[in-house]
Design brief:
By secondary structure, the protein is an alpha+beta fold. Helices cover about 30% and strands about 35% of the residues. The chain contains one helix and two strands; from the N terminus they run ββα. It has a two-stranded antiparallel sheet with strand order 1-2. It is elongated and about 50 Å long.
Length: about 50
């Protein structure tokens, strides 16, 4: 992860621009889904 830019928006508020490799991002998303996925309800339907 690399910090690319910072911009001061307001007092005590900053905007950060970071760069994350795609493989690291995908791994983090999958880990979060595995952890929180049990709390989610997936509704599917099929129309024939």
């Amino acid at each position: 992860m690399n910090l690319k830019a910072t911009t001061k928006i307001d007092t005590n508020k900053y905007e950060l621009e970071i760069e994350i490799p795609a493989a690291d991002f995908d791994a983090a998303v999958n880990a979060a889904y595995k952890k929180e996925g049990k709390k989610m309800l997936m509704v599917t339907s099929s129309f024939a």
